[in-house]
């Protein structure tokens, strides 16, 4: 189906390892939800060993997404195991969930593959390699 409205929006990203305070991660510029035109500007602000230590401590990586669109402001919180992010060498997938009216109703973070947190990773540059996906709500049974 066609989205009723198509607005650009900015999603501010903050992140935290374990129980640390949130730090700025960057932002996603959504030029068009219809076409899926997005770009992301970000940097880690954590060192690779921060991810390593959080992973070894079985802590979570938390991503907070502050969304502004259509004059509405919403904050979404999503998490994944720090060890998964560490083992993927900061390859993550951020999904923006959009309803039938074109409103963003969720943001979630995940890592590719079915990683098991099996062990060590060679030292790497702590730069995110992020895929941004837009997931549209399906018309379906209510």
UniProtKB/TrEMBL annotation:
Gene Ontology cellular-component terms for this entry are: EMC complex
- Origin superkingdom: Eukaryota
Q: Which UniProt keywords apply?
A: Endoplasmic reticulum, Membrane, Signal, Transmembrane, Transmembrane helix
Q: Localized where?
A: Endoplasmic reticulum membrane
Membrane topology type: Single-pass type I membrane protein
Per the similarity annotation, which family is this? Belongs to the EMC10 family.
| Name assigned to this protein | ER membrane protein complex subunit 10
């Amino acid at each position: 189906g066609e989205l009723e409205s198509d607005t650009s929006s900015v999603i501010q990203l903050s992140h935290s390892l374990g129980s640390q305070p949130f730090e700025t991660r960057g932002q996603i510029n959504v030029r068009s939800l219809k076409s899926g035109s997005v770009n992301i500007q970000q940097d880690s602000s954590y060192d690779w060993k921060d991810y390593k230590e959080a992973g070894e401590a079985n802590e979570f990586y938390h991503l907070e997404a502050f969304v502004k669109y259509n004059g509405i402001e919403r904050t979404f919180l999503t998490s994944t195991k720090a060890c998964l992010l560490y083992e993927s060498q900061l390859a993550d997938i951020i999904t923006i969930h959009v309803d039938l009216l074109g409103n963003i109703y969720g943001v979630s973070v995940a890592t590719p593959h079915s990683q098991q947190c099996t062990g060590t990773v060679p030292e790497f540059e702590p730069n995110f390699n992020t895929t941004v996906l837009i997931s549209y709500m399906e018309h379906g049974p209510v």
